[in-house]
Amino acid sequence: MDTPVGKSTLGELLPLLIIIGVLILIIIFCFKMVRLTSQAKKKQQQQLNILKEQGLTVHTTFPHVHGLPIAENLFCEIFSFPNRIEFKSGTTHITLMREKITYMCIKTDTEIQQQIVSSIGGTIAGGAMFGTLGAIIGGRAKTKKIKTVTKYLIITYKNNQNELAYIGFEVTNNLAPAYSLIAEFNKLNTNPDVHIDL
């Protein structure tokens, strides 16, 4: 009589033991993930401290819109130094020397779209206002179903052909570092007015 009772008790405990075992594995996994995340944050902070010693003034991340050889909407890290701005996304690392930058501003999609609409030949105006970037942002505003205002950081610079080019980031949810980048540009900018011969 003892044996069947013992077997049934073990049979009843087996699901409970399995649940306890699974919970223990989940707890161990969570502790390992917390440890790995903590180590990764510590390593990132150490790297940022090294960059700060090298002159890093602003570090932030924005979704890329247009202007860099990386995909649209991909997050891009921005590292601002006194003499340059570096952009990093995945394994792509791009450097823009500060003397090439001619202008930085924050514009809304509605401002750009209104400029395009109010000008004769809308696509030409879009191309004139921040080039392809302006046309992309204006097109986004036009196709929006819900009218919300989206803000963009636009960096104007002279490319290797000495032509004006534009880099754009969506900054609506991260305005403070975007304004810091503009304030730093205004403080450090030594470029004379841009003259264009047509």
Low-confidence stretches: 122-127
Summarize the main sheet: 7 strands, antiparallel
Topology as a string of helices (H) and strands (E): HEEEEEHHHEEH
Structural class: alpha+beta
Radius of gyration: 27 Å
Annotation, overall tally of beta strands: 7
Q: What gap, in angstroms, lies between the N and C termini?
A: 104 Å
Shape: elongated
Q: Beta fraction of the residues?
A: 25-35%
Alpha plus pi helix count: 5
Average pLDDT figure = 81
| Portion of residues within helices | 40-55%
Which strand order does the major sheet show? 4-3-2-1-7-6-5
Please tag this protein with its features.
alpha+beta; 25% strand; 48% helix; 7-stranded antiparallel beta sheet; single chain
Describe this structure in words.
The chain is of the alpha+beta class and 198 residues long. Helix content is 48%, strand content 25%. The chain has helices spanning 2-53, 109-118, 122-128, 131-143, 175-188, and strands at residues 58-66, 75-80, 84-89, 92-97, 101-108, 151-158, 164-170. Strands 4-3-2-1-7-6-5 form a seven-stranded antiparallel β-sheet. The longest helix has 52 residues, at 2-53.
Question: What secondary-structure arrangement, pairings included, does this model have?
Answer:
Elements: H1 2-53, E1 58-66, E2 75-80, E3 84-89, E4 92-97, E5 101-108, H2 109-118, H3 122-128, H4 131-143, E6 151-158, E7 164-170, H5 175-188
Antiparallel strand pairs: 1-2, 1-7, 2-3, 3-4, 5-6, 6-7
Helix pairs in contact: 2-3, 2-4, 3-4
Question: In short, what is this structure?
Answer:
By secondary structure, the protein is of the alpha+beta class. It contains 5 helices and 7 strands; from the N terminus they run αβββββαααββα. The protein is elongated.
